[in-house]
Amino acid sequence: MTNWLGQRIAKTRVYTFSRGGIHYADPSAPPWDSSVTAFLPVFSIIPLVDHTGSRTEPVVSVGDTVKEGMLVGRAEKSGSANIHASVPGTVVRTISWKMPEGHTNEALVIRLEGAFDKLGRREEVFPWQDSSPVKLRELIAEYGVVTMESSGFPAAELMSSFQSLEQPRTLAVRCVFDDPWLAADYVLCRERLKELAEGSVIAAHAAGAERILFVVSGNGQELGAPFLAEVSAYDIPASMVIVGSRYPQRDRRELEQVLRIYEKKEALELGNLLILGPATLAAIHDAVKLRRPILDRYVAVGGSAVKKPRVMKVRLGSRIGDLFEQCGGFTGEPKRIATGSPILGRTVQDLNEPVIKTTYAVFAHRKGQVGEGRSRNCIGCGECRVVCPMKLDPELLFKAAGPFRPGEENEPLAVQLLLQDAARAGIDSVLASFCHGCCCCDVVCPSRLPLSAVIVNFAKVAGGY
Ligand code: SF4
Ligand code: SF4
């Protein structure tokens, strides 16, 4: 067995989910060796909501001077997280744009000016060991930490709910690299391992977890022992489990499945699980120990249209277009530019879109997305059934749900007809709702059909009728 760097690693027991999934490789993803620091943006675009929650209230106006790390948007509701200026400067204007999901997003534009308070300076460290879980969560909320590997839920709220669950409670540190576009997480683990280990201990205290479990995929298992060595300095039990590198191993469902198998085999009682990833733990460390908000993050930049893919350490608010330029620019006209992994990515509207807390990858591909320009019909090869981890039949679901287009004027009638069709095919929306949108079926479909999008829409819309 070899890791991402091609080094040989010893054979150990590997826990994997029971069915389906894919081995996803993409030579256009950046190498997993080290990061480069991106240039500071002359103009930073700081959205007033940069995760799935509610908008923050701006506390600065056009013309105001802001310091690096200063609060610029205050969270006022549950699900909302504080927003900070990632650079010092002047707020020169506000902008707004329509998101693909329909809502309008607003942002502050900050022109870089003045001195940095944190960049290049020795930062003060704050002892945290005697702080209560409530105090730790207050700091995590104050500095705007959200779960940075997913849609970005406020971390302190998640921890507060977790602490109210029954014991035992385990913090699972997810270092699972089932997708080459998680390069940024891997490089972050290598470059900031000590801080991540301490961030894990802080997170466990803040969330009331009695133990830490490092969940490391086989292709990154060399990280496990150093994590355990770092955490051994603290008074909390910690262990490590190796899991598979097959996509979607990082998904909560697949991860829980293997952890329950591991728990049984090792006669452990993990109890309730709080799963957090490397970027979130680094942010928790910085919030509590350095009293610093999230100013930058590691981003994997690449794709078949990019000259020199690399992992970059990027200030929040930087333009995506600037990152491609710093990777040598394009080799030709890209057909698709998106954030996230190509399996699950969201197409960006233009190159001015900013990097936000949850941007772990950006890519520009010469080819279009799954389903684009499709002209072929299903050939009945059955590949989609083989890879579906939920034991669904994507071919059948797609054929039943395919004619429906959400938002049409005759939507209620269309849904009724669709449900009748689906019932004839022996499918109901409850079955389709078990689809967790992993997109494995899309990746393997030789006809390039947009299976998951149609199935997820079907489940969502039909469920409401
Ligand atoms: S997207 Fe849904 S139907 Fe397709 S493989 Fe994943 S779970 Fe199965
Ligand atoms: S993978 Fe595509 S072509 Fe093959 S059975 Fe499924 S939908 Fe049809």
Give a brief description.
With 465 residues, the protein is α/β, with parallel strands linked by helices.
Description:
By secondary structure, the protein is of the alpha/beta class. It contains 14 helices and 17 strands. Strand 10, helix 5 and strand 11 form a beta-alpha-beta unit. Helix 1 (133-142) crosses helix 7 (278-289) and helix 4 (193-207) crosses helix 7.
Cofactors, ions, other ligands: iron/sulfur cluster
The secondary structure category is alpha/beta
Strand order of the largest sheet: 1-14-13-17-15-16
Strand tally is: 17
Helix and strand arrangement:
Elements: E1 35-37, E2 43-47, E3 57-58, E4 65-66, E5 71-74, E6 83-84, E7 89-98, E8 104-112, H1 133-142, H2 155-163, E9 169-175, H3 183-191, H4 193-207, E10 211-217, H5 224-231, E11 238-243, H6 252-265, E12 272-276, H7 278-289, E13 296-302, E14 310-315, H8 320-326, E15 336-339, E16 346-347, E17 361-365, H9 383-387, H10 394-401, H11 411-424, H12 429-432, H13 440-444, H14 451-462
Parallel strand pairs: 1-14, 9-10, 9-12, 10-11, 13-17
Antiparallel strand pairs: 2-8, 3-5, 4-7, 5-6, 7-8, 13-14, 15-16, 15-17
Helix pairs in contact: 1-2, 1-4, 1-7, 4-5, 4-7, 10-14
The structure holds iron/sulfur cluster (2 copies).
Based on the model shown, name its key terms:
465 residues; alpha/beta; four-stranded antiparallel beta sheet; 17 strands; binds iron/sulfur cluster
